Amino acid sequence: MSDVRKYELVYILSPDATEPQITELHTQVESIIARYQGEFIKTENWGRRRMAFRIGKHREGTYVLEVFTGTGELTKELDRRLKVIDHVIRHLIVRVDEELRVAERVRARRQADVDRRIAKGLPVGGPSRRSRDDDGDSDSGGETEVR
Amino acid sequence: MADGRRSGGGGRGRGEKKDGEKGGPRRGMFRRKKICKFCTEKVDYIDYKDAKMLLPFVPERAKILPRRISGVCAMHQRKLQTAIKRARQLALLPYATD
User: Fold this and answer.
1) How close, in Å, is residue A136 to chain B by CA atoms?
2) What is the pLDDT of residue A67?
3) Staple partner for B83: which of A81, A89, A119, B46, CB 3.0–4.6 Å?
4) What angle do CA B32, B38, B43 make, to 5 degrees?
5) A92 → closest Cβ in B32, B33, B86
6) Is A89 part of any domain?
7) Cβ atoms of B64 and B57 closer than 8 Å
8) B53 and B73, same structural domain?
9) Does residue A124 form part of some domain?
10) Domain span including residue A33
């Protein structure tokens, strides 16, 4: 269970990278993933975006996101390769499985809580958090919708 | 002079603290109770790729907004912090602006 690691890779290509270059790099990434027995999940091309600050002499870049599973070895290899390629001006690999799992658990617990409250016939939405001085218009929004 | 100041300051400091403990909440000004945006909207995962969502938490100078001002709870502030820092690495958010 815990040995399947999910990663997100985002890289920024220089704005003068051509369309074939972009697709070529994508296939390259995919083949590396395949070579390390990783599983490719999805890709997203965000297109050309203005960056918040200059990197090198560039003000904008083409962002590409890749999601995949694999091992630490794989990310190491990807990291090494991306560093070498000239028209990749920045890249970031983030491991996301643990955070997503935590988020999933929190959501499940909340759902269970809601179900239990409905079963008991109690009002849904936590034990009254706005007990003292009732300035409550703004924070009652989420709580009073469902009874 | 320095001596006098120091002792005076200390004394006042203590006095203030006592004041705060006693009548803090109902002292004159009306302060709205802050609520965590992520808790009310039930956001479980703060995505570093969503720059638009992070933008309100990095005002003007692009510094991370302290939670004493935004009212974000400790857990979400922690997650927000990593998300902002990741977004900065990808130039989705600025490190600083002047």
Assistant:
1) 9
2) 95
3) B46
4) 160
5) B86
6) yes
7) yes
8) yes
9) no
10) 5-97
